[in-house]
Fold each of these.
Amino acid sequence: MKNYKIALIKGDGIGPEIIDEAVKVLKAVSAKCGFALEFNEYLMGGCAVDACGVPLPDATIEGAKASDAVLFGAIGGYKWDNLPRELKPETGLLKIRKELGTYANLRPAAVYDELLEASPLKPEIAKGVDLLIVRELTGGIYFGEPRGRDENRGYNTMVYTKPEIERIAKVAFESARKRRGKVTSVDKANVLEVSQLWRETVTEVAKNYPDVTLEHLYVDNAAMQLVTNPKQFDVVVTGNIFGDILSDEASVLTGSIGLLASASLGDKYAIYEPIHGSAPDIAGQDIANPIATILSAAMMLRFSLNEEKAADMIEDAVKSALKDGIRTKDTARFGAIKVLGCKDMGTEIASRI
Ligand code: IPM
Ligand code: MN
């Protein structure tokens, strides 16, 4: 029997609750599909600062590298907000992405018909939205040097090299080939040199994909188009900070940020995580929506473990629960027949496997 090693990083806030539900669903699906999963837990974020004095202990990096994939919850909380940069929970997350070389962050956003009413957009605009944001994750202004601050000045550097742009563009074009064959590259080439290089390079890479249509949009326009005409988008490829912002924007189209999964892929390692944060305001109350994490686990099965059938089974179980009006509190107002807590939602989805 195949046996996969999964590194679990629960993190802070609602992280532990949502990971526990994803594990429940993973156990159900592995039993059905005849493979075994070995789970090992590692610390990252505020809990790691408290326990070890650093947001990303070496043991976590080593554990992640020794695993087939990393499943991550969320990090951060009020308690650690005012720490210096090197101790911030967020620094742990940025560092693990860099250490594992997970440069391609895939963030799908699709509007489920069952939750159409939960979208803040008019149903005729939201219905059928199905897009994938491909966000560059280990470069750009998040990592550029020089950076720094003193009392009166703070600065960061947005830098991309050609190879960095080429490899993320390839991921976008390959993804578009498996979808509807369109890539929209988002930049700010009317102002930024780094974006001019971005645009030129993406255009060059596109020559190897004559079957894929390429369009370019400035980021301000893209932000507007995402809410006025989101159906035009298939794959959106963009840099680190634009992708951070646009993926949050895209998530609300679907009705709840609590539904959106993501995969961060590199040449050797991968991290799977919900796109939402640690939600410290609702932590420990058993009301968080575990679906984003459960769908991230499905992406893990698909991309890292090649267990396609198991991934489909999880996605179908989530869809069928939503179809039957099973909701968590965040989406309770829309077609709810039964409103469940985090734990019961996990149990419900696991029972549908
Ligand atoms: C995300 C988060 C992170 C990011 C933060 C917590 C560092 O917002 O995964 O989108 O900006 O990448
Ligand atoms: Mn974000």
Amino acid sequence: MKTYSLLAIILLCFCLHAEDGSQLWLRYEGNANAQITANVKNSKTVDIALSELTQYWKGAPVLLEKKRTKTTDEGFTIVSDKKNNSLKIVASTDIALLYGAYHLLRLQQTGQVTENLNISQTPKYQYRILNHWDNLDGSIERGYAGRSLWEWEKLPNEISPRYEQYARANASIGINATVLNNVNANPKILTQEYLQKVKVLADIFRPYGLKVFLSVNFASPKTLGGLPDADPLNPEVAKWWKAKAKEIYALIPDFGGFLVKANSEGQSGPQDYGRSHVDGANMLADVLKPFGGIVMWRAFVYAPSSDDRAKQAYLEFMPFDGKFRDNVIIQVKNGPIDFQPREPVSALFGAMQKTPVMVEFQITQEYLGFSNHLVYLSPLFEECLQTDTYAKGQTSTVAKTTDGSLFGHRISAIAGVANTGSDVNWCGHDFAQANWYAFGRLAWNYELTSEQIADEWIKQTFNDKKEFLEPVKGLMLSSREAVVDYMMPLGLHHIFAMGHHYGPEPWCYFPNMRQDWLPPYYHKADSEGVGFDRSKTGSNAVAQYFPPLNEKYGNIEQCPEEFLLWFHHVAWDYKLKNGRTLWDELCYSYDNGVKEVRDFQKIWDRMENYVDAERFELVQTKLQIQARDAMWWKDACLLYFQSFSQLPIPYDIERPVHKLDQLQKIKLSISNHENAILETINR
Ligand code: GCV
């Protein structure tokens, strides 16, 4: 028996080939030579479906049948025709046939093909969008996987093969839209020169069903058009935008529309002219309406003067509910602050009922260890989407308040800030690919569980050997809790280093700086305790939630402990449900986070025989960085908060390996993730 398993392992190692992660989850084996036909006049999209299946489908003959169906334009059915020993993919559009083809291949890759297939699928959201924070100079804001995929300098003449690979990867998971440029938008994107480049990308993406959107700078009529202002109520401004829209649609007839970050973090907007978000969004909506375009208007707004940043989006947008045009959708970050490893959901979900609202997730790991830390984000996405807002009875999950079903909206959308870049493995960390994948799969169907998604991703990206699948799945599924434990347990938040947000800096304080950009504004540690009081006795942010959430969050006894310090300023000796004091629980949580990452290392090292050497080593190295970072977080936070609590770190916990003053001297000058890696290694 022993000899047999040894042989099997040797054989497996032999079969594994050298590789670089560039194939993502699309690792079909070629030369299948299946018999694939279509009842439809070939289009580029149908040709792709035919070609993918002909090369890679190893089962019964497949007919792609286009006909009117009850499903939506993008929905498809896969049915076995037992009599003829064949299969049919039925859909009413070409793109839906392609989605069906990718689904069939996914079933094959994950061992789910049965004799009697009868599957009907239809996506939950109409627009399933990646937001690229890519700048025109090739850098990416909060990007940790190299440079931008878009080689603006070389476009429109030189075409990178990655453009089509990108479109294919997105189509394979049902992502159907992409915003190419940073929300901190350079007006230049709207010049004829750049629009010609955008057109080339749109043409490549189109057969894969990927619609192109652009982020626009609200001041463009002034900075680009030479007008004296960009006031949305100035007819000359509206005229400028109309002409611009005409120019765009002449090049890209199926252009999706605009994404706008206005009057936020220094970006211009309608408020510069005494106008409102409604004035700004509706002006652009009117411009896009004749072409079928939409405006995604972001609610990420906060002013330095506020008593509680977490309340601001709600305060600013709720009065406008119902006042936006029907082709405007409000894009809201999943939590009220900013993509922290854990946040309660934004109170705007469920509250804005007359205007469509969409969730914005961050797939790139700005606050989660960049592309150095292995964090599977599907549980974070799932937690948000499945949170009940109680807006309309018991089943008003964030998913249902945003998919158009609960409030009967015509448009629905979901966005994820992309983690892709020029790195050969696309995302910097091989496991970060799972976050792109999970976003797409949940956008298609938020009823999938994180476990199911991890299962299918591992089988497609690595292998389906039980000895590999089960431990790695376990690792992925616990990775999000681990990062919460070693970065911000019990609802602590925004205690990240200033600016780059890599590593801890809970002490960071400058009296003359915007206080809401500094950690003490959020943790409020003092000799009594720690945490932000958002209950009735504090900022009363809890009042923005529907009952019973407002009561639950507002009452220290009932508040879920994962949000305790988010909603309450809690005494160091406050007793938690497990009988520990707050201080002790903080210590054990940080310690647990470190232990979890050390366990991830142990699990991964055991996987060496099941994975190619390249990916094994890259992940191993990154886990080493993550383990060191986790200890850094633990020591920095515990030693710093201890200076307030004046309590001992429980003696059964591993002792700090750093001194606080040493840690306080660390200043990472991170312009990109390579620096972060180097500097953390050299620390
Ligand atoms: C694109 C946070 C990030 C910024 C980002 C901003 C936003 O503040 O740190 O880099 O800017 O969110 O979402 O607009």
